[in-house]
Write a structure and sequence with these properties.
heterodimer, A: alpha+beta, five-stranded mixed beta sheet, elongated, B: mainly alpha, 0% strand
């Protein structure tokens, strides 16, 4: 098969570029644990508010000082709507939905989750800077999708 | 007018009608976030029309237009379309399906957006109509394959005509892609929407959807590539740089377009991160043939520019026929697609995706890719093909000349602010971005206003296009028909059928790849303890 000299150069350049991109991705995945949120755990969406951790959503502090935020995203509200967490401490969000898909995005951070009925979405992050962060639903969930919002208040490290 | 021409034109009309209806809805969506009061402006109408816009543009306009290109290429490169009766049956099935789905959307009972993620539950007619549309496109696939095989039998050992090679890869990608969709709709959604099965698993449904949803984008793109490779060099007055490498590119799309869907599910629960990393690799692999396309097409254009007397490093560029609407459409499409491609590399990046997933960035991205690279190429193609099919010259040539540039400018105004505001955290698909005047949301407003201006420019461009085409068919007199001719390669194809012409073999390899990247995660999803969902219709 005839391949022109410049074509060959370009193909090497393209391969090099892709190797660079993928190398950067693998490097950050291995060294910095930069993974997408991929928690695998199921939960019954029909009985969320009856029993279990999702019946009493809220912020808890574990014995090791780690903070866990348990939440429900449901038609047009996040429960709880206002979350207070400390800065500089790992915070684990655990969220599920009793109805349709929702999104959970903390604006200004890379916390971005699809929330699905039947599954628990989980992500751990550390807020470096104190302040108020807007939380929005970024997966279309119905007529008041654009009204679904919450707030994360990050308080100065204790 | 030959029977195949009538078939091509009928498919084109449905495509252009769908495009016009979808464009009219889009302008209202583009301005809704500026706070300007528009007729029918309400959250209900916004989400309803987003659904209609997505279905009409992304599914109906593209599918019918691609079927038209396919029949045209088969007729002009193979000599005939085998199975005309089937082709018409497929056309009518797809058309009836489109009408049913559109009516279901307009009735307000199916506002599930074009991704129709369960457990959002639409009226069953929505899914039935969409199924008919896909079945119609399967008939098209069958007619294309039948025509191809008949030609091969009559021409043993001949290299496959390059435009047909590209259209056959399109057919194969569509079959591989719609297998996932068929499982989702026929096995999961239809029985559930008719109430035969009470529950559905949203993550499994999404996985089958994106098995379909990403190769869908290559189903849109490949016919545009076929035109870039095999028609545009000739329109520009030159030759195709490389026949052999073009075939390699098409085959690579067969292999890598399907096993990439999980990159749309990077934020999903229930799918382990390792499989998401595998799909990152395959997604990046598919950038390779696109990068070669950039080289080959630009090299062909340079050849054309030099043939027209251009000299020096860049002197060939102004010599190109920038006043020809088809050429301008494609050249502007390519510039736009380069921007869209780099954005796509960020969407597909394993960890960076979290910055942009489901933000306005995404709508900015796919309006550059499908909304420009594909749609603008198709619009430009209409200006080229209609006179050749009907003998009618384009009326208002000045409008046709300006229209692609208008689209290009409008799209930059629309998409660049969307990318920026997406990075700032504004979600996609929201009726308003106000969020009770939170400071972060306030900072989005200048950008949404800019993108609204882009939306209005795009609407003007779309109406210029539709008006010109409509008037051409209504008032332009019939005259001499120019022939439909494809670009010659600088070096002729290999004498015999090369390994890259063995499309059956490559389809089998692609099927194995799909099994490898989807088998284990789907097996795991199906076998773990699950709690599927009832349906909800919150609209």
């Amino acid at each position: 098969m005839h391949v022109d000299r410049y074509e060959r150069y370009w193909m090497w350049a393209a391969s090099g570029m892709l190797a660079l991109f993928l190398g950067a991705i693998v490097l950050t995945a291995v060294s910095g644990s930069a993974h997408p949120p991929s928690h695998v755990e199921t939960v019954n969406p029909d009985t969320l508010s009856a029993a279990g951790e999702f019946a009493t959503p809220g912020v808890t502090v574990g014995p090791d000082g780690g903070v866990t935020v348990v939440m429900r995203a449901e038609f047009y509200v996040f429960r709880p709507e206002v979350i207070r967490v400390p800065a500089g401490t790992p915070v684990t969000f655990r969220i599920t939905s009793p109805d349709v898909l929702h999104g959970f995005m903390i604006v200004g951070t890379n916390v971005n989750l699809t929330v699905a009925p039947g599954y628990v979405s989980e992500v751990t992050t550390t807020f470096a800077r104190p302040g108020e962060y807007l939380v929005v639903c970024n997966e279309y969930c119905g007529l008041a999708h654009h009204l679904m919002q919450g707030k994360v208040i990050v308080e100065g490290a204790p | 007018m030959t029977p195949a021409t009538r078939l091509v034109l009928s498919n084109l009309w449905v495509a252009i009608t769908a495009f016009a209806l979808g464009a009219m809805m889009a302008v209202m969506q583009a301005v809704s976030r500026t706070g300007v009061q528009v007729p029918f402006g309400s959250a209900r109408m916004y989400y309803l029309s987003v659904t209609a816009h997505g279905v009409l543009e992304a599914l109906v306009f593209t599918t019918f237009f691609i079927m038209a290109i396919g029949y045209l290429v088969a007729e002009t490169t193979l000599g005939r379309v085998v199975g005309m009766a089937w082709a018409w049956a497929g056309f009518w099935a797809a058309l009836v399906g489109t009408v049913i789905t559109t009516l279901a959307i307009l009735s307000g009972t199916s506002t599930v957006l074009y991704t129709f993620y369960p457990p959002l539950l639409a009226h069953p007619a929505f899914y039935v109509g969409a199924t008919l549309l896909v079945v119609g496109s399967w008939v098209w696939c069958g007619v294309m394959i039948g025509s191809f095989r008949a030609w091969r039998k009559a021409n043993p050992g001949a290299p496959v005509p390059l435009p047909m090679h590209g259209m056959m890869t399109t057919v194969i990608i569509w079959i591989l892609a719609t297998t996932g969709l068929a499982v989702e709709v026929l096995v999961l959604i239809l029985p559930w929407s008719f109430g035969l099965v009470p529950r559905i698993d949203p993550i499994i449904a999404r996985t089958y959807f994106w098995w379909f949803g990403h190769p869908l984008t290559y189903f849109w793109l490949l016919p545009a590539y076929v035109l870039w490779y095999t028609v545009i060099p000739r329109v520009a007055g030159g030759k195709l740089f490389s026949d052999a490498l073009t075939r390699v590119v098409f085959v690579q799309f067969i292999l890598f377009s399907t096993p990439v869907g999980l990159h749309h599910q990077f934020t999903d629960p229930g799918i382990a991160s390792g499989w998401k990393l595998v799909h990152t690799f395959t997604t990046y692999a598919i950038m390779f043939p696109s990068l070669i396309t950039a080289f080959t097409v630009i090299a062909s254009l340079e050849n054309a520019g030099r043939a027209r007397g251009g000299t020096g490093l860049f002197g060939w560029i102004p010599r190109l026929p920038w006043r020809d609407p088809f050429f301008a459409s494609v050249a502007l499409s390519m510039v736009t697609f380069a921007l869209g491609g780099f954005g796509g590399a960020i969407n597909a990046a394993y960890a960076m995706n979290a910055m942009v997933h489901n933000t306005a960035w995404i709508q900015g991205h796919f309006h550059l890719t499908v909304g420009t690279a594909v749609a603008l190429t198709f619009m430009g193609f209409t200006y080229w093909v209609l006179p050749r099919l009907t003998g009618r010259a384009i009326v208002w040539p000045r409008v046709a000349m300006v229209q692609p540039y208008l689209w290009f400018v409008g799209m930059q105004f629309f998409s660049i602010p969307n990318h920026i505001v997406g990075l700032m955290g504004m979600p996609r698909r929201v009726y308003t971005g106000e969020y009770q005047d939170v400071a972060a949301a306030q900072s989005w407003i200048p950008f949404t206003n800019l993108s609204a201006i882009g939306g209005v420019i795009l609407f003007v461009s779309a109406m210029c296009y539709v008006g010109t085409i409509l008037m051409t068919m209504l008032v332009s007199p019939r005259g001499e028909m120019a022939p439909i001719e494809y670009a010659e390669p600088m070096s002729p194809p290999e004498p015999g059928p090369s390994i890259w012409d063995r499309l059956g073999l490559w389809t089998a390899v692609a099927a194995v790849l799909i099994l490898i990247v989807y088998g284990p995660p789907l097996y795991h999803l199906h076998t773990m303890a699950r709690f599927p969902s009832l349906g909800f219709s919150p609209f």
